[in-house]
Design a protein that fits this description.
9 helices, two-stranded antiparallel ribbon, about 280 residues, seven-stranded mixed sheet
């Protein structure tokens, strides 16, 4: 029975060459949390990965260790113990008719959409008892006032019709900012999120100025991305990282799928295909 869910959320690149506004998160049932945390932390200790794990820290020296850790993490994903969601916007999609308020608060408005929709929480299976949701954000990079307003909007999701229908409750004291150094699930999310923005923005092709060859760190990151993509494709063969994952004819799979991507498109928008990879110089 589902009694409580814990959602860890993070954000990455605000503006990339082809894709921007990356958000990511993982969700776990409270009954599985300690077992998963202990397994992942034990693996980091075994591998002597003593500092915080982040995509930006990936190097050839530690690549095999990152392989082992992400292999274990994706074992839990494949078993649907952990659910992962990644959201982004393609740069050829531009919102139209938006006001200054929306521009100023874009970061939090998009984050709100991610929490509300990405995990398909409105399609949770029917339960006899209410389900509590805890939401933990990596440190929010904005003023305390804006962060507090944002967290109040997350709490108010309990009143949304789709959340009320499935009995999902978000208490004010269960929405918080946390230090990613102390949360291994958030660190693993950072690695996946980083890998996706790395590949979608063609950073695997980058060469140091004046060089004909890619740097060792770029090569290592590409290898880690390929490893992660291989594990995703064990769940979904031929997975396309650059588009919204399909529901295979059942909208409830927005919840049931263990791993999904969401290419966010505003309701009112226009497209400029000169900003796609296909038309890049």
């Amino acid at each position: 029975m589902l009694k409580e869910l814990i959602l860890y959320a993070d954000e990455s690149v605000k503006s990339g060459e082809f894709y921007s506004n990356f958000y990511g998160g993982c969700l776990i049932r409270s009954g599985d949390l300690e077992t998963v945390k202990e397994a992942l932390i034990s693996k980091t200790e075994e591998l002597h990965l003593n500092s915080e794990l982040k995509w930006q820290k990936v190097t050839s020296q530690y690549l095999d260790k990152y392989f082992e850790l992400m292999d274990l993490f994706f074992d839990f994903v494949q078993e649907d113990v952990i659910k992962v969601r990644i959201m982004f916007m393609q740069n050829n999609v531009e919102a139209v008719g938006i006001e200054e308020y929306h521009k100023e608060h874009e970061y939090f408005l998009l984050y709100y959409q991610f929490i509300k929709h990405a995990f398909g929480l409105g399609y949770l299976p029917s339960q006899d008892d209410p389900i509590r949701l805890r939401v933990y954000f990596d440190r929010l990079p904005d003023t305390k006032e804006k962060a507090a307003l944002f967290k109040s909007h997350i709490t108010s999701l309990s009143k949304a019709p789709e959340f009320r229908r499935v009995g999902l409750i978000i208490n004010e004291d269960q929405v918080a900012e946390i230090d990613s150094k102390k949360h291994i699930l958030l660190q693993c999310t950072d690695i996946i999120l980083g890998a996706m923005q790395f590949r979608l923005n063609n950073l695997h092709k980058v060469k140091p100025k004046g060089s004909y060859r890619r740097g060792k760190r770029t090569i290592a990151k590409e290898k880690l991305y390929k490893f992660i993509n291989q594990r995703i494709r064990e769940i979904y063969p031929n997975f396309n990282i650059g588009i919204t994952t399909g529901t295979q004819g059942d909208i409830r799979n927005r919840w049931h799928h263990p791993y999904r991507h969401w290419g966010f498109v505003p309701a009112n928008h226009k497209r400029d295909d000169s900003k796609t990879k296909r038309n890049a110089p």
